[in-house]
């Protein structure tokens, strides 16, 4: 997604744009009192209750939200499909659920059911997500309730540590195009130290490192699409570099140590760490003086990227009755493009950041997002501990497990 609007222009457009409902004729939308079940993985309903209540009255249906935890979602959706209970379902799910369900022919392709102007009223990032989630050229996702910023991945740094230890300014490195693995390693080596002279390292340069923070910033991915089939791609040079970096920082240099919930960064004992944007809700509640930059570039990268972790969208089950009407209903109650823009630019960014430069970088992340995410993130588990622990080289270990992982991919996609 390129050339997104600046904040000032966005706010102008919010006032000027018409509602997304222009894409549909709602006059004849009547469900005859049926219950429509929205299957969701979070107990917090993200849909506007007033809009849903209005829709119930206008379109003569009963709204039901059925909550299933993330790990049980695919099983529950499949059970509803097989029992015939899903014919008036709307599935609100992450892309790992979609990948598993679409491979079992459980999700409805909606290409012929979308009106010609459906995409005219969607936030551009939603269109990117829809297109990136096509399978065999077919469209399955058709809307989203989550702004793309929610799952975008950034790098944060503790400004107080950087100032106290005289570390290079990440903003200056970013502006020069020099915010790279090499520079971050130099900084991490300087920041990793025993600050109280008790003989134990108590401040590390980097928190938890994982391939989520290294693959896409080096132009790598878990799978490639070759002749219509998904092929395990961890044996490619850019992927091996990304895996080896985690080993190097965790085990060889010992500058990276931490947990997924960034508790060490929150405690002020890490100079830098990778974060998924929803973790800013925790960060904003602290007194930490932090800055935000992109993930550092790998040697194979040509630009900064702002990948997303999960991609969560609306889908319909394969047995959906009156799918065109269900899509129209979702279009009515889903947040508008204007809401997505306002939420990201006018609320989340001002709440989450501590300075103007961080805000600028977050905006650039949204503006420059081109659908960068890994389709296998959260779906395919690849045990890399033998590499990270230094037991085996990345190249040798990937060669060893390659047939097993490729077999899992083949089984998943039935290819």
Q: If you had to describe this structure to a student in words, what would you say it looks like?
A:
It is a single chain. By secondary structure, the protein is α/β, with parallel strands linked by helices. It has 2 domains: 7-148 and 310-364, Periplasmic binding protein-like II (D-Maltodextrin-Binding Protein, domain 2), CATH 3.40.190; 151-308 and 373-413, Periplasmic binding protein-like II (D-Maltodextrin-Binding Protein, domain 2, 3-Layer(aba) Sandwich). The chain contains 16 helices and 10 strands. The chain has helices at 7-16, 49-59, 73-83, 95-102, 124-132, 159-164, 170-175, 181-191, 237-252, 263-266, 280-283, 323-333, 337-352, 356-367, 385-388, 394-413; strands at 35-40, 62-67, 89-94, 153-158, 204-206, 223-226, 229-232, 270-276, 290-293, 312-315. The protein has a 4-stranded mixed sheet with strand order 2-1-3-10. Strand 1 (35-40), helix 2 (49-59) and strand 2 form a beta-alpha-beta unit. The protein is globular, with a radius of gyration of 23 Å. The two termini are 31 Å apart. 42% of the residues are buried.
